[in-house]
Predict the 3D structure of the following.
Amino acid sequence: MPSKKYVGAIDQGTTSTRFILFNQSGETVVSHQLEQKQIFPQAGWVEHDAQEIWKNTGEVIRTALEKANINPLEIASIGITNQRETTVVWNKKTGKPYQNAIVWQDTRTAEICEKLTQDGGQRRFAPKTGLPLATYFSGPKIKWILDHFPEVRKDALKGDALFGNMDTWIIWQLSGGIDRGIHITDVTNASRTMLMNLETLEWEEEMLSIFGIPRAMLPQIRSSSEVYGVTSKTGPFGCEIPIAGDLGDQHAALFGQACFSPGEAKNTYGTGCFLLLNTGEKSVESKNGLLTTLAYKIGKEKACYALEGSVAIAGALVQWIRDNLGLIKTAPEIDILAQSVSDNGGVYFVPAFSGLFAPYWQSDARGIIAGLTRYVNKGHLARAVLEATAFQTKEVFDAMQKDSKIALNSLKVDGGMTASGLLMQFQSDLLNVPVFLPKVAETTALGASYAAGLAVGFWKNKEELRQNWKLSKEWKPKMPMKESKKLYQYWLKAVQKSMNWVEK
């Protein structure tokens, strides 16, 4: 039997699926990635084909192993990390989804959320679930499917229709699908459904009753790091490997950044932007528009909680500028274009394409470009696009300090947009703290592999993981605070202009 040299991670994101193998030092050995189709049936609707995602998962696994000529038997365990809240419902007998998965950015459930806020307000369920009523979460999406497809409700009552976020769908398929697929999720993903009680870490009967969701369609909630089962011999690995880690993507990034102590925070700059702060073994209810969520739960250890601020549109704005406006041909060009000017020329871009997320939670907001004059050129627009991400992060950062009563004195960062030195420097200037980028930028996949590796003894403990964290780059504040404050005031003014655009 070959010795166990690697831990693998499947990173199922909003725009792509990746498979990465890591060694004992937490370094990437091999990686392969495939994009999936973004489906927009009508304004505000965003969908994915769950079967395409599963097909891509198999392909990225097989290609990565071939590329590096690695025997699957050398892999100690597999972890999964995923885009959260994206909702798929499938038939357990046929293995086929009833319809396309409804993506986290989708706003079709606005009416459901609006009706529920009338009796108790937007935060009526926050004490139990940690979440405000918003289109973002899985619970309203499941209700929408059940309300619109009577056959799904019928099958759900019989126990034939299964719900899962993407982690659950992939683990079910990996472990055998219709033959012996295991139907599970972890506490981090369950905490994003609006159906789990934050304290008991169980499905909350009151929430299931309010949303009209049969208990039988929900997966079993497990910890983020334990052996759930093994991969099927007929699957992409061709052998049995322990499936032992499961974390929503942002929680995985927090874990991969070794933010194991209360007060440690990370921000992921991806399709959206997600700032998480470890608050330890106690959940902190937000008074400033943030989410209370699970950070992780390692085996039988006590659960660890976090505060989270979610920005819907970050890297997605760069994609929009590229695909919808044709202002750039490739994403990295945004940096070059933005550097062609010395400032934003007075332009502010509020990308409220799906409403505003933290700390506002206003689904009636829409995107605006403010401050245009004849002087403005495409360089200023490009700069405003990058700065929008930093401004939104600043709003979340400030809310986090108010809620936690912790002064954040640095920020660990990861995700694709960290490639923009201009954005990272501006972020440091706005927050007035140093920004740290680790050597292993794939912290989301790394966090999932850490959870999977801990479960099988590939790594001994969290301290060993902390030793793996190495600094790649650091940005320190350079801009005078008076100047950064002025820019931020204009941003806040622009945000106000984006609100109440959609009339109810």
Remarks:
- The chain has a mean pLDDT of 93.
